[in-house]
Design a protein that fits this description.
Distance between the termini: 53 Å
Number of strands: 0
Shape: extended
Order of helices and strands: HHHHHHHHHHHHH
Helix content: over 70%
CATH architecture of the largest domain: Orthogonal Bundle
Number of helices: 13
Radius of gyration: 26 Å
Largest sheet: none
Amino acid sequence: MAKTAPEQRYSLDDLLAVMVRLRDKQTGCPWDVAQNFSTIAPYTIEEAYEVADAIARNDFDELKEELGDLLLQVVYHAQMASEEERFAFADVVDAITRKMVRRHPHVFGNADREEFLAKNLWRRIKQAEKAARGAAQSRFGDVPLALPSLTRAVKLQKRAAEVGFDWPNVACVLAKADEEVAELKAAVAERDERAETDGTKRVSEELGDLLFVMANMARHLGVDPEAALRDANAKFLRRFASVEGALAKRGRKPEDATLEEMDRLWDEAKEAERNEG
């Protein structure tokens, strides 16, 4: 697989061959040989996040690299499965291609596009696939545990909404959020009254309830809560950097400033952003 000319490009077959070499028990990389599905899984999740991060930053050069890293994860898992004679990379490609064709009869078949979308036939096809595999027909069974909690909350709520278990409008969700805030305040007050230094189980539970309602709010508003929080994180970093910059011009650091001073600089940074917008 050696390349003799600069213009020659590596192919998917080359990548598959690289992974075979890396996993060779005699001549491969000891680290790669020692890995298994469980040890690689966290890297797979991490690479997916890095793809999303590159997209969020509109960095297409990095996106190309991160997509390669994510593809490597697929190749890695497929190679380990091949070694155990379970399936090969070609089986992965065949399975996903068949699934996409099967789940899009309005594209690859004769199904009416408008009817397909209106009747949510995608969901019905997925349920039929599970039944054909003999899989348990739990409404929530195929919502992965490893999803980010906010994303998983939205998916769980969406599944419940499909059978009518849902708030009728945003106003009802807001009212529920107010109720959860009140319950959280009561839990915190009870903890403080007992002079407990660590968070109690009730405080954690009430905070979880509030976050779950916020995920529901995002769903009703048509907002991705992960994206919204990611944007809020970026905004915080941007504004705090402005605070640090303002203090640096005075030869100081945040550690040297009072909370009141940093709050004032924060408000100035916030106002400056609004004026720029």
